[in-house]
Model the fold of this input.
Amino acid sequence: MGEDGIAISTHSRWNFPILVFFKDARRALGLDPLGREILSIAVPAAMALAADPVASLIDTVFIGHIGPVEIAAVGVSIALFNQISKVAIFPLVSITTSFVAEEETIERINNNEIENANMKKDPINKDQSRDETTLDIPQLENSKNGSIVKSGPKETAPQEQKQATLQNGIDEAPKIKNAKRNIPSASTALLFGLVLGVILTLVLAFLAKPLLGLMGVKSGSPMLKPAMKYLTLRSLGAPAVLLSLAMQGVFRGFKDTKTPLYATVAGDAANIILDPIFIFVCKLGVSGAAIAHVLSQYLIALILLVKLTQKVNLLPPSTKALQFSRFLKNGSLLLFKVVAATIPVTLAASLAARLGATSMAAFQICLQVWLTSSLISDGLAVAGQAIIASSFAEKNYEKATAAASRVLQMGFVMGLGVALFIGLGLEFGSVVFTKDINVMHMISVGVPFVAGTQPINSIAFVFDGVNFGASDFAYSAYSMILVSFGTIGSLFGLYKVGGFVGIWIALSIFMGLRAIAGIWRMGTGTGPWSFLRK
Done:
């Protein structure tokens, strides 16, 4: 057994890489050390991801009391803000988690080597004369106020110097452990987050009107004025959003998802409290809602920054220590991945809109349920990414393999549970979303696809974390581009043949191809998983 309780004979037993997905399948939901480590990371991560949608829902309730025009305007502005910021957020958080996990692991290994070297130092010179009395460790433990309690002949000055050396060697290990970490990726991520946040603020503030026009809010629309107010003010929080998410990536790299959860809950709670104060008491309307949200985002960023400065030296020794080229190279790859993943879903929504208001309403409800249910999978993806990245840095391929298999198995099992929940929930609970009989009928048509694809969706989303943990960013990006092209073709063809049903069949194919791309990479033992074929 290895240090993590994982059998070290895995490679010899699994002659075909594809079989690794079934490794220890009976313990998929077991609470062994690996299972507990995964859940300790995944559960807080999923809760943190769920906190923002819940806060946004409550936010929408408050704004809804202002009027229908205002809530429509805010809805468009939020969608625009989220779509543009997502392009920067996803690559930044993903690469930060992997890079920090790698660097933190390497620094820990180096510190352990220094600690072991110090403990092995021989403080006594073997050539020293035998008439000089040596001092052992128990005598050190009896010393008080720096004076040594002696029980033999008087010590010589050289012995006292050697004893001081021994004491320094013993005390150095705790100092190393308690010292702040030097993680260049953390400093680089924060710098990128700040720069991208400022750029996002400028883009949204100065291009609000034309961007809203692209979203369908034209000059004569009554939604234009409140939408511009909300979007312009909301843009001021972009630096805080990007900074806080960059710091969340750092904490995830440390396998700490609890700190981001506490910060997110505190910020969202502040938003919920401030909303009615600014909207109704101060009578600021949609502007008040935007101000409350911006303040909550800066609160989250401040909490995370204070916590992070306690753990990491955020000022690198030099600019050479920063990893601009590494971030730009891999960030660009993930940028292509985000765009490629967004196009099929956006195109599907556009095609659904052509079918009429009823089909579009049903599609939007089904789509939101379809995407929201991925939160559990995203939590597992975060856990898998952090553990796998650390394991690769340690060259502990046994644990990397075991962690990848376990999170995929857990994702599949949880996907089955979510499928059952959504299948029953949407079938009998669609009245929560609408009272229109025609829309409810169309939702029932989409239920088999929304529910039935959940296990596949879970595998696809978890594979993102597995690939990122192995720093397989290039394959993740290029495979997504190919998947996107294949899906676009099927969307147009199936839309013409099957309409609403055809669109959902195409989206099911989209997620199936994403899952197959992940299975192919690891199952064939290629790229970073080539060790599985040995």
Summary: The CA atoms of residues 103 and 389 lie 10 Å apart. The chain has 18 helices and no strands. The mean pLDDT is 82.
